[in-house]
Fold this protein.
Amino acid sequence: MFVFSLVLIVVLTAVDQIIKFVVNDRIDPGSIIEVIKFGDVKVFSLTHIRNSGAAWSIMEGKTWFLIALPIAVCLIGLVYMYKIRKGSKLELVSLAMLVAGGVGNLIDRIRMSEVIDYIKFEPVNFPIFNFADICVVIGAVLFCVSIFITDVVKEKHQKQAVSSAEKQAENE
């Protein structure tokens, strides 16, 4: 499963970079392409912006930090993936998604000192984001779910062990 996770990182990172290449090549910076619209209500659009910061452009101009942090997080994620390589499939996939998203945006930051964002969810004032950001968010949610599931399973096994011990003590 560890090898599958590494392949997943490569595939998701490649998808991210291909989409960003197409956006950069086909959508003029600042232009908006309405994708989903109901009457006058815009729901989903594609655009092309460059972000030198993080979400909502926080930490703008802190490129060194926005490069160093993902490198550290991705390395820690890879080491942890190797450590649990025979463990939970959900945990490995979630970490692969986190690493892939980090690497996708890291490539942009190293190459251009900024990230290409293009997905605009219109109904709320939310930052424009990209596929790598989606991988990070879904990976983080799945990682939390996997930890919750692991805790529930451990608790269930502990209760069963205590119950078995009690039954064995009663039989003696």
